[in-house]
Structures are given as structure tokens and as C-alpha cells.
Amino acid sequence: AxxxxxxxxxxxxxxxxxxxxxxxxxxxxxxxxxxxxxLGRPKEAIAHxxxxIAVRPDxxxxxxNLGNALKELGRPExxxxxxxxxLAIxxxxxxxxxxxxxxxxxLGRPKEAIKRxxxxLAIKPDxxxxxNNVGNAxxxLGRQxxxxxxxxxxLAIRPDxxxxxxxxxxxxxxxxxxxTIEKLLKSPSLSETDAxxxxxxxxxxxxxxxxFNKAFKHYDKANTLKRRAITYDxxxxxxxxxxxxxAYSRDYFEKITACGSDSExxxxxxxxxxSGTSLVEQIISSHPLVYGAGELASFGCFxxxxxxxxxxxxxxxxxxxxxxxxxxxxxxxxxxxELRNHSLDAKRITDKMPVNFARxxxxxxxxxxxxxxxxxxxxxxxxxxxxxxxxxxxxxYSFDLSELGHYYLDYERLMAxxxxxxxxEILGVQYEELVMNQEKVxxxxxxxxxxxxxDRCLDFHKTRRAIQTASVTQVRQKxxxxxxxxxxxxxxxxxxxxxxxxxx
Length: 504
Description:
By secondary structure, this protein is mostly helical. The chain has helices at residues 8-21, 26-38, 42-55, 60-72, 76-89, 94-106, 110-123, 128-140, 144-157, 162-171, 176-185, 192-208, 212-228, 234-247, 250-255, 277-285, 298-310, 325-342, 360-366, 379-387, 401-421, 431-436, 438-448, 495-500, and strands at 266-271, 290-292, 348-351, 371-376, 426-430. A 5-stranded parallel β-sheet has the order 2-3-1-4-5, sandwiched between helices. Helix 2 runs antiparallel to helix 3, helix 6 (94-106) packs antiparallel against helix 7 (110-123) and helix 7 packs antiparallel against helix 8. The longest helix is centred in the C-terminal third of the chain and has 21 residues, at 401-421.
């Protein structure tokens, strides 16, 4: 009851008291795990779900809940194993089918995900969330009209489904949605999470009809609410960049020359979100010898686990001072295995996780000769586009204009450091040049990754592959000649960010 009221800390107290009275109370362990996960404590949640399963191995719900916690920690393959266990116990468990679909989608397998969502819908036809996620997977596959149908079905079942409203406006903004959403925003039971989706949806609709003042008002409201719900410290991130620069020094790389893998399989595409990373990956992956794996969480997980491997009291990145050949080969083998799970025969596999720009030191440690492509775009266009897009997780810096500006400065500072350490090794691609000189830049990309030119790279919009980013619609079309100086539509509202980025 306390959990349903949002009084999560009090709920924890009572679950813990129940467990103190009856240590083998499986339901209490699993429920406690769910609350801990809601509070952003998935590692603690995992321990309780495992305890529930130890007590009751046939507890399908606990297996599904454990899968959710593992998925949140970026361990989708382990999550899938537990969803499958839940379904082996209870084949008609609609939520487990649904959650399995989410994990498959996160691994870049949207066709398999759709089948799981459809199984959930066969069991529970009014499962609005499953319709919404079928829409997301179809959108990734470039099947927008079918995606729209599923978003509309989700809204027919749940007219107040905020996320489905926002998703629909990404593909097909409708003016008639405005009055509906405005009424929903006045609901006395409105949650902040729903309000965020509604305001982003209204921002998308007004942006589509070029009513930019109204659009910004809603984007600003959405970001303000989102910022209130997350923890982020701009000064702390600046200090972290200082630590990266100190840890990954010239001396460090001189000491580890014999470490790492000599594989050329990975191609890392990095940069700020909304800087053209999806477009670059789409061009490269249109080559028949390249597989585009999308945004992989591997290097973020490596940062978390590498200190444990070193058995060091230092956290990352300071623990990298203990780097040795054995550990670098262990982590590089794990990563190559993950890449091969995506494609067994590709000559190059791209990892388009933008924030890997902060992990170039670790990338160069594990894969000294692998290629890294740095995507760049006008700073103000990049940051404005970040502010206008909803990010479910990550990108915590993007919900406040001042913090967004400071993050961009730290990103530029860190990239300058990597370029000074590895001159001419990181290929810089300017978005504006790419759209103006498509063939020239595309040929440079293919030459850089060590492959022969293929004309299919010019027809990138015809390549059918899953795309999971906000750029999905753009990369399904021929090269878009606009996109420059878009920030000027919102110039009068960008005061603090403009001041911070005045030199860009």
C-alpha cells in the first residue's frame, strides 16, 4: 500500500520487518527488490530477487523481476535468461514476454522483439504498453505507418498513455492531439513522469508547425520536470574529466604499449548526441562488409567492473595505473565476443555509443589500432537538438541549458586531449561538410576503416537495419540538406547556453 502511494522508503521498512519475522518470505524479498529498483538501487534489488528464487525456484515473477534489474544494469543477455526461465515456468506470463521483447530490442534484435510483444498481446489483447513497444520496434525498422497504427491502438486502449502520445508525435505530429493533451495536463492525478512526455509531445507538435515560441515553452517545461527527477552535478562531471585527462596521460600510454588486442574489427563512432553519429553509422553499415551494431553499453559496464578485476581500492579511472596485458586481453576478448554475437562474418562492426568519446582512453588501451570516428556538428545546433529530444536514461546534462553548455565545454576539452595524444588517428567528421559533400566524406570514411569503396554507401537511406536513436526518421531519407543554424529558431530562449558557448 505504501509503495502504491509512492512512499517507497516507508515501504522498504515494512518489507524488511516482514523478512526479519520470516526470512524465507519469497514474495517480500521480490517486492523489496522492486522498490529498491524504483529507487535506482538495482544491485541491491538483484540480491533480493535472487533470495526469492533461492527460496522458490519456480517463482516466475521473481525471475522476471530479476531480469528487469539486470536489464537496468546494462546486462540484457543475463536478463533474457531469467525472462526465459520465467516463461518456462509460466508460458502465459504476458509481462515476461513483454520484458523479454524489451531486452531483445536493446540488443538490436527488433524483429525478435516484435514476436515477443505479439505473444504478450495474444495473451493480453489490451496490453497498451506492448502496442507502444511494437510501435517503437517497427519505427526502428523503418516501418513508420505500421508503427503509427500501434501507437494509435495503445492510445485507444489508454487515451492518457503519455509515452504513446509522445512517440506518435515523433513520427506524425497531429494538431488534434493538442486539445487532448492539454486536457490531460489538467488532470488532478497527473504524475510528473506523464507530464514530461506530454510537454515533449506538445513541443514536437508546435515545432512541426513552426510555432517555435510555444514549442520552446513546452520543451522547457518538460526539461525542467525531467531535471527535477534526476541527480546530476555539472562541477562533478568537470572534475571527472580532469581525472580522465590525468589518468590517461602520455606517460600512461608509453607504459602500456604491449597491451591490448590487435583486432581491427571494432569501429567506434563517438561524439555528442545529435551530432550525426547515426547518419555516419548508416553510411558505413551500408557497406556489405560492415555491420552496424548501434549503441552498445559494453564500455560503460567495463568502467564499472575493471577496478574489481584489478582488485584495486582505486576507482575508475585511477585504477588504470595497474593496467596489464592479461586484463586488457580479457576485456578485449569479452568485447569481441559481444560484437560477434551481432555478426559472425562482418569485417568491421560499428559501436555507435556517443558517450564513448569519454572512453577513448579505455578504447585505445584495449584496441590500440581500432578506428575511432569523431562526429562533430555546430555546437549550438547540437545542444539545442539535445534539449528538444527526450532521453529515457542517460544524458542527464541535457535537461538544463547551462549544464548542457558546460558539458559541451568538457566534451571539447576531453576531445582535444585525445587528439593531442593520438594525432591523425581519430577521424573527425563535420556534419555540415558531410551533408554538403556526401560522396567525398563517405569515401573518406570507408577508406579510413580500411575497406574498398562500395556505391551502396551513397544510398544509405535504402539500407534496412534497426536504428534505435532519435535520428531514425532522418537516416531513412536521402541526405538532408538542412539542419544547420536550426538553433536560431529558438535563439531568444537560449540565453545562458549562448553565453557559455559564445566562443563556438
